[in-house]
Amino acid sequence: MKNYRKNRSAAGFTLVELLVVIAVIAILAALLMPALNSAIGKAQVIQCTSNLRNVNLGLVGYADAYDGFVPASGGAYSEITVPGGKRMTWAGQLVYEGLLPNGKVLTCPGIVKWNAYCWKYAYELTTQSARDFLDAGNGLLWQMGYGGYGLNCLVQGQIGFGRTYSRVRLGSVRQPSRKLLVADTRGNDIDGTPSANSSLEPAKMSGGAGGCGGGAAFGWHQETANALFFDGHVKSVHGPKTTPELFWIWTRSQPEFCFDNTQSVDVSPWFMQ
Protein backbone atom coordinates (compact mmCIF):
# COMPACT_ATOMS: atom_id res chain seq x y z
CA MET A 1 0.00 0.00 0.00
CA LYS A 2 2.83 2.37 0.83
CA ASN A 3 4.49 1.63 -2.52
CA TYR A 4 1.25 2.42 -4.39
CA ARG A 5 0.93 5.83 -2.74
CA LYS A 6 4.56 6.59 -3.40
CA ASN A 7 4.27 5.79 -7.11
CA ARG A 8 1.14 7.88 -7.53
CA SER A 9 2.76 10.84 -5.81
CA ALA A 10 5.79 10.59 -8.10
CA ALA A 11 3.56 10.59 -11.18
CA GLY A 12 2.95 14.35 -10.77
CA PHE A 13 -0.07 16.04 -12.40
CA THR A 14 -2.83 13.97 -13.92
CA LEU A 15 -3.95 14.60 -17.50
CA VAL A 16 -7.03 16.45 -16.30
CA GLU A 17 -4.94 18.71 -14.09
CA LEU A 18 -2.58 19.49 -16.97
CA LEU A 19 -5.51 20.37 -19.22
CA VAL A 20 -6.89 22.69 -16.55
CA VAL A 21 -3.52 24.46 -16.25
CA ILE A 22 -3.26 24.81 -20.03
CA ALA A 23 -6.80 26.21 -20.19
CA VAL A 24 -6.03 28.78 -17.50
CA ILE A 25 -2.86 29.86 -19.32
CA ALA A 26 -4.81 30.19 -22.58
CA ILE A 27 -7.46 32.35 -20.90
CA LEU A 28 -4.83 34.60 -19.32
CA ALA A 29 -3.05 34.93 -22.67
CA ALA A 30 -6.31 35.87 -24.38
CA LEU A 31 -6.97 38.51 -21.74
CA LEU A 32 -3.47 39.96 -21.95
CA MET A 33 -3.10 39.87 -25.76
CA PRO A 34 -5.16 43.02 -26.49
CA ALA A 35 -3.17 44.98 -23.92
CA LEU A 36 0.07 43.64 -25.37
CA ASN A 37 -0.97 44.51 -28.93
CA SER A 38 -1.98 47.98 -27.78
CA ALA A 39 1.40 48.48 -26.09
CA ILE A 40 3.22 47.33 -29.22
CA GLY A 41 1.10 49.66 -31.34
CA LYS A 42 1.84 52.64 -29.10
CA ALA A 43 5.55 51.83 -29.20
CA GLN A 44 5.40 51.81 -33.01
CA VAL A 45 3.66 55.18 -33.06
CA ILE A 46 6.40 56.60 -30.83
CA GLN A 47 9.11 55.12 -33.06
CA CYS A 48 7.38 56.47 -36.15
CA THR A 49 7.21 59.92 -34.58
CA SER A 50 10.94 59.75 -33.88
CA ASN A 51 11.56 58.65 -37.47
CA LEU A 52 9.66 61.62 -38.86
CA ARG A 53 11.63 64.05 -36.72
CA ASN A 54 14.82 62.58 -38.17
CA VAL A 55 13.33 62.80 -41.66
CA ASN A 56 12.75 66.49 -41.02
CA LEU A 57 16.43 66.92 -40.15
CA GLY A 58 17.39 65.14 -43.37
CA LEU A 59 15.12 67.33 -45.50
CA VAL A 60 16.35 70.50 -43.81
CA GLY A 61 19.91 69.38 -44.46
CA TYR A 62 19.05 68.77 -48.11
CA ALA A 63 17.35 72.16 -48.39
CA ASP A 64 20.40 73.88 -46.91
CA ALA A 65 22.54 72.29 -49.62
CA TYR A 66 20.11 72.87 -52.50
CA ASP A 67 18.98 76.48 -52.24
CA GLY A 68 16.03 75.77 -49.98
CA PHE A 69 14.38 73.07 -52.10
CA VAL A 70 13.47 69.49 -51.21
CA PRO A 71 14.16 66.65 -53.70
CA ALA A 72 12.19 66.92 -56.92
CA SER A 73 9.84 64.34 -58.40
CA GLY A 74 8.17 63.56 -61.68
CA GLY A 75 9.06 60.12 -63.02
CA ALA A 76 6.91 57.01 -63.16
CA TYR A 77 8.21 56.01 -59.72
CA SER A 78 8.15 59.58 -58.32
CA GLU A 79 11.92 59.47 -58.71
CA ILE A 80 14.52 62.10 -59.50
CA THR A 81 17.63 61.95 -61.66
CA VAL A 82 20.85 63.10 -60.03
CA PRO A 83 24.16 63.96 -61.73
CA GLY A 84 25.53 60.87 -63.44
CA GLY A 85 22.10 59.75 -64.61
CA LYS A 86 21.29 57.85 -61.42
CA ARG A 87 17.62 57.78 -60.46
CA MET A 88 16.18 57.52 -56.97
CA THR A 89 13.23 58.55 -54.84
CA TRP A 90 13.50 61.47 -52.44
CA ALA A 91 14.00 59.11 -49.51
CA GLY A 92 16.59 57.16 -51.47
CA GLN A 93 18.50 60.35 -52.13
CA LEU A 94 18.60 61.24 -48.44
CA VAL A 95 20.18 57.85 -47.74
CA TYR A 96 22.41 57.91 -50.83
CA GLU A 97 23.86 61.32 -49.95
CA GLY A 98 24.31 60.38 -46.29
CA LEU A 99 21.83 62.94 -45.00
CA LEU A 100 20.20 60.02 -43.19
CA PRO A 101 22.25 56.93 -42.29
CA ASN A 102 19.88 54.19 -43.38
CA GLY A 103 16.44 53.21 -44.57
CA LYS A 104 15.36 52.14 -41.11
CA VAL A 105 14.80 55.79 -40.23
CA LEU A 106 12.68 56.17 -43.36
CA THR A 107 10.57 53.05 -42.83
CA CYS A 108 7.33 53.34 -40.89
CA PRO A 109 7.29 50.60 -38.21
CA GLY A 110 3.54 50.28 -38.68
CA ILE A 111 3.89 48.68 -42.12
CA VAL A 112 5.63 45.62 -40.67
CA LYS A 113 2.42 44.12 -39.28
CA TRP A 114 0.83 44.64 -42.69
CA ASN A 115 3.73 42.80 -44.32
CA ALA A 116 3.68 45.58 -46.89
CA TYR A 117 5.24 45.05 -50.29
CA CYS A 118 9.07 45.13 -50.26
CA TRP A 119 9.29 46.95 -46.92
CA LYS A 120 12.36 44.93 -45.89
CA TYR A 121 14.36 46.31 -48.82
CA ALA A 122 13.70 49.84 -47.60
CA TYR A 123 14.41 48.95 -43.98
CA GLU A 124 17.77 47.32 -44.72
CA LEU A 125 19.16 49.97 -47.09
CA THR A 126 22.22 51.91 -45.93
CA THR A 127 24.22 54.71 -47.49
CA GLN A 128 26.95 52.29 -48.52
CA SER A 129 24.58 49.64 -49.91
CA ALA A 130 22.70 52.34 -51.84
CA ARG A 131 25.91 53.51 -53.48
CA ASP A 132 27.03 49.96 -54.17
CA PHE A 133 23.66 49.17 -55.75
CA LEU A 134 23.91 52.06 -58.22
CA ASP A 135 27.63 51.56 -58.85
CA ALA A 136 26.81 47.99 -59.88
CA GLY A 137 24.96 49.36 -62.89
CA ASN A 138 21.40 49.47 -61.56
CA GLY A 139 19.66 52.51 -62.97
CA LEU A 140 17.05 53.11 -60.27
CA LEU A 141 17.44 53.03 -56.49
CA TRP A 142 13.87 51.88 -55.95
CA GLN A 143 13.99 50.42 -52.44
CA MET A 144 12.99 53.54 -50.54
CA GLY A 145 9.79 53.81 -52.52
CA TYR A 146 8.35 51.24 -50.11
CA GLY A 147 9.26 52.67 -46.71
CA GLY A 148 5.81 53.99 -45.92
CA TYR A 149 6.54 57.74 -45.87
CA GLY A 150 5.38 60.05 -48.64
CA LEU A 151 6.73 63.54 -49.36
CA ASN A 152 4.20 66.22 -50.32
CA CYS A 153 4.14 66.21 -54.12
CA LEU A 154 3.16 69.88 -54.27
CA VAL A 155 6.61 70.97 -53.12
CA GLN A 156 8.41 68.43 -55.31
CA GLY A 157 7.12 69.73 -58.63
CA GLN A 158 5.04 66.62 -59.22
CA ILE A 159 3.55 66.05 -62.65
CA GLY A 160 0.03 64.72 -63.04
CA PHE A 161 -3.23 65.17 -64.98
CA GLY A 162 -1.45 67.30 -67.54
CA ARG A 163 -0.28 69.81 -64.92
CA THR A 164 3.06 70.56 -63.35
CA TYR A 165 3.39 72.16 -59.92
CA SER A 166 6.46 74.31 -59.45
CA ARG A 167 8.98 73.22 -56.85
CA VAL A 168 8.60 75.16 -53.64
CA ARG A 169 11.22 76.27 -51.14
CA LEU A 170 10.59 75.15 -47.59
CA GLY A 171 10.79 78.70 -46.31
CA SER A 172 8.09 79.97 -48.68
CA VAL A 173 5.21 77.88 -47.37
CA ARG A 174 2.36 79.79 -45.77
CA GLN A 175 1.30 78.78 -42.25
CA PRO A 176 3.72 75.83 -42.10
CA SER A 177 2.23 74.49 -38.87
CA ARG A 178 -0.98 73.61 -40.76
CA LYS A 179 0.44 71.87 -43.82
CA LEU A 180 1.79 68.38 -44.32
CA LEU A 181 5.36 67.83 -45.46
CA VAL A 182 5.64 64.05 -44.96
CA ALA A 183 3.08 61.51 -43.79
CA ASP A 184 2.36 57.79 -43.54
CA THR A 185 1.38 56.95 -47.10
CA ARG A 186 -0.16 54.04 -48.96
CA GLY A 187 -0.31 53.54 -52.72
CA ASN A 188 -2.02 50.98 -54.90
CA ASP A 189 -1.75 47.39 -53.71
CA ILE A 190 0.66 45.16 -55.65
CA ASP A 191 -0.47 41.60 -56.32
CA GLY A 192 -2.99 41.94 -53.51
CA THR A 193 -0.34 43.10 -51.02
CA PRO A 194 -0.54 46.53 -49.31
CA SER A 195 2.10 48.84 -50.74
CA ALA A 196 3.62 52.09 -49.54
CA ASN A 197 4.40 55.04 -51.79
CA SER A 198 7.09 57.71 -51.63
CA SER A 199 4.86 60.52 -52.88
CA LEU A 200 2.05 62.01 -50.79
CA GLU A 201 -0.69 63.15 -53.15
CA PRO A 202 -4.35 64.17 -53.00
CA ALA A 203 -6.49 61.09 -52.57
CA LYS A 204 -9.15 60.00 -55.00
CA MET A 205 -12.65 59.71 -53.64
CA SER A 206 -12.47 55.92 -53.86
CA GLY A 207 -9.63 53.55 -53.05
CA GLY A 208 -6.47 54.31 -51.19
CA ALA A 209 -4.21 55.59 -53.95
CA GLY A 210 -3.28 59.15 -54.67
CA GLY A 211 -4.32 61.37 -57.53
CA CYS A 212 -1.59 60.69 -60.08
CA GLY A 213 0.24 57.52 -59.25
CA GLY A 214 1.31 58.45 -55.77
CA GLY A 215 -0.13 57.59 -52.40
CA ALA A 216 -2.73 58.96 -50.03
CA ALA A 217 -2.21 59.52 -46.33
CA PHE A 218 -2.98 56.23 -44.62
CA GLY A 219 -3.31 54.98 -41.06
CA TRP A 220 -0.65 52.28 -40.78
CA HIS A 221 -0.98 52.50 -36.98
CA GLN A 222 -4.40 51.14 -36.00
CA GLU A 223 -6.22 53.79 -38.03
CA THR A 224 -3.69 56.45 -37.05
CA ALA A 225 -1.45 58.24 -39.53
CA ASN A 226 1.60 60.15 -38.34
CA ALA A 227 2.36 63.38 -40.14
CA LEU A 228 5.30 65.79 -40.24
CA PHE A 229 4.32 69.40 -40.82
CA PHE A 230 6.39 72.09 -42.50
CA ASP A 231 7.25 73.74 -39.20
CA GLY A 232 8.86 70.50 -37.98
CA HIS A 233 6.24 69.27 -35.53
CA VAL A 234 4.81 65.76 -35.80
CA LYS A 235 1.18 64.92 -35.14
CA SER A 236 -0.87 61.72 -35.07
CA VAL A 237 -4.04 61.99 -37.14
CA HIS A 238 -6.86 59.60 -36.21
CA GLY A 239 -9.58 58.37 -38.51
CA PRO A 240 -10.61 55.64 -40.94
CA LYS A 241 -7.77 53.72 -42.57
CA THR A 242 -8.44 55.24 -45.99
CA THR A 243 -9.78 58.77 -46.14
CA PRO A 244 -9.04 61.81 -48.32
CA GLU A 245 -9.57 64.03 -45.28
CA LEU A 246 -6.23 62.87 -43.87
CA PHE A 247 -4.56 64.73 -46.72
CA TRP A 248 -6.90 67.69 -46.94
CA ILE A 249 -6.26 68.87 -43.39
CA TRP A 250 -3.24 70.92 -44.42
CA THR A 251 -4.79 73.18 -47.09
CA ARG A 252 -8.50 73.06 -46.39
CA SER A 253 -8.81 76.69 -45.32
CA GLN A 254 -5.78 78.11 -47.11
CA PRO A 255 -6.41 80.31 -50.18
CA GLU A 256 -2.80 79.93 -51.30
CA PHE A 257 -0.25 77.21 -50.68
CA CYS A 258 2.89 79.34 -50.53
CA PHE A 259 4.22 82.83 -51.12
CA ASP A 260 5.65 82.23 -54.60
CA ASN A 261 2.81 80.09 -55.99
CA THR A 262 -0.59 81.77 -56.18
CA GLN A 263 -2.27 78.63 -57.47
CA SER A 264 -5.12 77.81 -55.11
CA VAL A 265 -4.71 74.15 -54.24
CA ASP A 266 -8.16 73.84 -52.71
CA VAL A 267 -10.00 74.91 -55.87
CA SER A 268 -7.68 73.03 -58.20
CA PRO A 269 -9.57 70.39 -60.22
CA TRP A 270 -6.50 68.17 -59.91
CA PHE A 271 -6.54 68.44 -56.12
CA MET A 272 -10.24 67.68 -55.87
CA GLN A 273 -10.12 64.83 -58.39
Characterize the overall form: elongated
Quote the beta fraction.
Answer: 5-15%
- Helical run tally: 7
Q: Cα distance, first to last residue?
A: 88 Å
Count every beta strand, where a strand is a DSSP E run of 2 or more residues. Answer: 11
Uncertain segments are 204-212, 241-273
In total, how many domains does the architecture comprise? 1
Order of helices and strands: HHEEHHHEEHEEEEEEEH
The overall average pLDDT, rounded, is 74
Largest sheet: 6 strands, mixed
CA-based gyration radius: 24 Å
**Helicity range:** 25-40%
What is the fold's blueprint, element by element?
Elements lengths: L1 H9 L4 H51 L14 E3 L3 E3 L1 H7 L22 H6 L2 H9 L4 E2 L7 E4 H4 L2 E2 L2 E2 L15 E7 L12 E2 L15 E2 L6 E6 L4 E5 L6 H4 L25
Parallel strand pairs: 2-3, 4-8
Antiparallel strand pairs: 1-2, 4-7, 5-6, 7-9, 7-10, 10-11
Structure write-up:
This protein has 273 residues and is an alpha+beta fold. It has one domain. Helix content is 33%, strand content 14%. The chain contains 7 helices and 11 strands. The protein has helices at 2-10, 15-65, 90-96, 119-124, 127-135, 153-156, 245-248; strands spanning 80-82, 86-88, 140-141, 149-152, 159-160, 163-164, 180-186, 199-200, 216-217, 224-229, 234-238. Strands 4, 7, 8, 9, 10 and 11 form a 6-stranded mixed β-sheet that branches. It has a 3-stranded mixed β-sheet with strand order 1-2-3. Strands 5-6 form a two-stranded antiparallel ribbon. Strand 10 and strand 11 form a beta hairpin. It is elongated. The termini are far apart. Mean pLDDT is 74; it is low at 204-212 and 241-273.
